[in-house]
Amino acid sequence: MNPANGAILDPTIGWIILGSFSLLWLFLGWYWGRKAGELDEYVLAGRQVGLALGVATAMATWVTSNTTMLAPQLAYQMGIWGMLGYSLGAVGLMLFAPLARRIRELMPEGYTSGDFIRLRYGVTAWRVFLAISLLYCLGWLVSMGMAGGILINALTGISYLYGMTVILAICVGYTLMGGFRAVIGTDFIQALLILVGLTVIAFLAIGTIGFEQIHAAVVENRPRLLDLLMPAAIMFLFNNLLFGMGEIFHSNVWWSRAFAFRGGVGFKAYLISGVLWAPIPIVAGFIALAAPAMNLNVPAPDMVGPMVSAEVLGVTGAILVLIMVFAALSSSIDSLLAATSILIVEDIYRRHLKPKAGAAHLRRASSVIILGLGALTWVLCAPRIGNLAAVLNYVGAFVASTIWPIAAGLYWRSTNPAGATIAMIAGSAAGLTGYYLIGWYVAALLGAFVSMIIVLTSTWARPKRFEWQQLSEAEPA
C-alpha cells in the first residue's frame, strides 16, 4: 500500500498508465479523424459500419465504468439480485435489435432519435423528449466522470479532481479530432481490454480466496446478501430491466449506431452484443461478495469494487483494473459526447436557431458542442454529488417513460401523438414521486408502468393513423 494515501499503486505509476493510454487514444483520434471532414463521416462514420465493429462499439459502450463499479456496489448492498439485476441491462440491447432494423428501414437518412419523435408525434412531444434525453445525457456523463475520479483516487491516490479531469479531457480530445470514426475504432480496442481484464480479475480472485470462504463469510457477516426474497432487491431487479430498456430505446447513443451501421447489420450487432454483455455485471459484482471474507472497511459502497480488486490482486491487479476501467470510461464517454453533440446540433441548433445551416456549418458546430459538453460535465462532476447509484438512477424515472412511445411509434400506425406526449410527462412525474417517496430502485418501474397505461389507453380510445413515408426527410445540404 502507498503509505501516504492508502492506495495500492504509487501515483507515479498511475500517471504513467493514464498518460500512455491518453496518448494512444489521441493518436487514434487524429488518425481516424483524417477521413472525417464531411458531416456524415464525422457524426455517423459514413453509415457503413460493419458487424465486427458494430458488436464491439455496442458492447463496449454499454460496459461503462458504472458497470464495473456500480455492479459491485449493488452486489454489496443487495446481494445476488443486485448483480443479476444489473445483468438484465443486456435485455435492452437485445430488444433494441429489431428496433434498429426498423429504424434503418424507416429512416435511412435520419440523424437522431429526436428526428423520429418530431416527425412521428409533432413538436410538443419532440420538445418533451429532448428535455428528457438531454437530462439523461448529463446524468450519464456525470456518473461516468465521477466513477473515473473515484476509481483513479482509490487505486493510485491521485486526487478525485485530477483523475476526473484527465478522463474527460482525453475523451473530449480524441472525439473532437476523429468524430464517430474515432469512437467506433477505439471502442473495438476497448472492448478487448475490458473482456480480457474482467476474465483475468475474476479468475485470480476466485483462485486467491475461493468460493467456500467467500460464501461462509457472507453467511456469517452479511446473510441478507443471499436472501432471494429481499423486497428492495426484487424491485430493483425489475426496475433495472426497465431502466436499461428506457436508456437504450430513447438514447441517441444507440439510434446513431442504428443510422451508422450498414443495412442488415443493426439487428445482428445489437443481439450479439447483448448476449456477450450479460455475464459482465455478474463477474464484476461477484468481486464485492469477497469483501466480508477480507474484513475490508469500505468507506463508501461505490468504492468496494476497486478496493477488493486491489487488495486481492496486488499491484498487478490494480494496474489491470485501472486499464480496464479507463477503457470502459473512454468507450462510453466518447460515444455519449458524439451522440449528444449531433442531437444538440440537429434538434436544437439547426431546428430552432439555424434552419438554413448546411452540412459544413453543422460539422463545425458539432465540434463546438463536444467541447461545451466536456466543460459542462467537468463543472457538474467537480463537487462529487451523491453516489453512483443515486446519480444514475435519478434519470431512470424519465427514460423509462419513453419506452412505450418509442416502441409503439415504430410499429403501430395508430399510436396517439397526444397520448405519447402525456405518457412521457406523467410517467416521468410518477417515477420521480417513487424515487423520493420509496427509493431510487423503483423510479424506472413506476415511470414505465404509468407511461404504458397512457399509451395503450389513448391509442385504444382515440387511434390516429400515421403514414410511414412521413418519416423520410432530406439530409442537410
What does this structure look like?
The protein is an all-alpha fold. It contains 22 helices and no strands. It has helices at 11-33, 39-44, 51-62, 65-78, 80-87, 89-106, 113-121, 123-156, 160-209, 211-221, 231-250, 252-260, 265-277, 279-286, 291-294, 304-353, 359-381, 388-394, 396-400, 403-411, 417-437, 443-461. The longest helix has 50 residues, at 160-209.
The profile of the biggest β sheet is: none
Assign an overall shape: globular
- Secondary-structure element pattern, one letter each: HHHHHHHHHHHHHHHHHHHHHH
The number of helical runs is: 22
What is the residue-averaged pLDDT? 82
Poorly predicted runs: none
Q: Determine Rg (CA atoms, Å).
A: 22 Å
Structural class: mainly alpha
Key words describing this protein structure:
mainly alpha
Quick description:
This protein has 477 residues and is mostly helical. It is built from 22 helices and no strands.
How is this fold's topology laid out?
Blueprint: H1 11-33, H2 39-44, H3 51-62, H4 65-78, H5 80-87, H6 89-106, H7 113-121, H8 123-156, H9 160-209, H10 211-221, H11 231-250, H12 252-260, H13 265-277, H14 279-286, H15 291-294, H16 304-353, H17 359-381, H18 388-394, H19 396-400, H20 403-411, H21 417-437, H22 443-461
